[in-house]
Amino acid sequence: MGRVEVFDHTADLGLRVTASDLDDLFQTAAEGLFDVVTADRGGIEPRDAEPVAIEAESLELLLIDWLNELIFRSETGHRLYGRFEVAVDAAADRPRLTGTIWGEPIDADRHILDHEVKAATHHAVVLREGPEGWLAEVIVDI
What we know:
Archease, Possible Chaperone, Chain: A, domain 1; 42% strand; metal-binding; Archease_dom_sf; Protein archease
């Protein structure tokens, strides 16, 4: 299982994600995003499943688009997500992610919202494979 750290970046926040493979990296990045959005991601019940499919020009753009898709669904559907299963195909002409996300409607009696995340930005995005696995850094606009 991957690991995520939050780091300060001017008026924004950065997510530094490490994982053994790309699937784990993208899943862990989503978990890290909702760790920023909520004070207790563990309190989000996986009531409803939603399919997701995204393509992009590069792996870096795929990661940004993935996080922005989650932000969009959360904001427009007034939902929180806490469970993610994804498969990343980096060998395709255009990298793609397919999977399922689980969540529930925001319940003000149970969920404590921590930060309003507006977007994952293109600024200073890093995504690379190293000897220990994969590393990504993404700045989120709060």
